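Final report, closing paragraph on structural work. Over the funding period we assembled a curated collection of sequence-structure pairs, and we close with a single example.
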Amino acid sequence: MSAHEETLPGADSDPQVPAHRGDPLAEQRAMARTAAVVDRGHRGVIAVTGEDRLSWLHLLLTQHVSELPADTGTEALVLDINGRVLHHMVVAHTRDTVYLDTEPGDVPELLAYLQKMVFWSKVEPRDATDELAVLSVVGPATADVLAAAAGVDVPETHGALALPDGGVVRRMPWPGTDAADLLIPRDASSAWWEQLVAAGARPAGTMAFEALRVEALRPRLHVDTDDRTIPHEVGWIGSAVHLTKGCYRGQETVARVANLGRPPRRLVLLHLDGGDERLPVPGDPVVRDGRPVGRVGTVALHHELGPVALALVKRSVPVDAELVAGVDDRIAPAAIDPTSVLPEDDTPPPGRAAQIRGGLRG
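Its predicted structure, as stored:
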């Protein structure tokens, strides 16, 4: 067994689909240089139809979708009353349907919430997981692969177009610099896979996809979050949360943190010195001077960066702090990648600035 194989992450967050297709590092290189295709068919899909679909979703989601144009995609969250993240979804609006694809196993709870909130709105949310499967093409040659595979013109980033034989293609800005998700009829997923491979996409597994997602500092619900996570901590403000819209559960917390202060934690990229030992797993502690200061999220072996992980750490932890991640036989020295931490803006948030001005006037 090679050193690389010995230090592969020990926790598989996606056991329902292939983790790799023989060489996860080569699969990552294909995603970085050409294109690769990944089976993500274990993701859940909800379809929302009805003439009130956009105005209704606008009241429930953190994103501004009341006027979301057709053939457009975005991301959104559902929060609890305290502003903590319950659900994350990627959105595609095509023709007369809004598609929400979300983490494996999350559809029953999310759909139950949506159905409970229908009241008199003219909407019909349904579980479409058995109808549609997700394939992701990642890499700078994504557009060429899709054009060659099925004559599909890939839309601009966050664009979403209905496919002629059913399903949707949605342009994505992650996990690599260029990517597209295909929500395709599940009974046609094998045929699509073969077409994409024949068009030049290397077969890849979720390990490669996750490694590039970690590099891009894109969080994943349940893996990089816990039951206390608020959107500000993991970079979902903007991409999944619209700060100037109201009328959704948890909005008060979102506005208060944005206007009066900073979140208590932040998502960072950790470089792990794992050697030939086992690496930490999601949920393991991040420790400084013997005291827990955060939690490990997704762990990956990156084709250029080596062993890395996303982690939620206290905002007070210095960027150059000496850290340890993991427990027992999976402890690894860890260092925060300084490029993953935005410089602190010393300008007080708007609400705090108003308080200061009021105090000065008093």
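Residues 55 and 132 are 24 Å apart (CA to CA). Residues 1-6, 350-362 have pLDDT under 50 and may be disordered. We thank the funder for supporting this effort.
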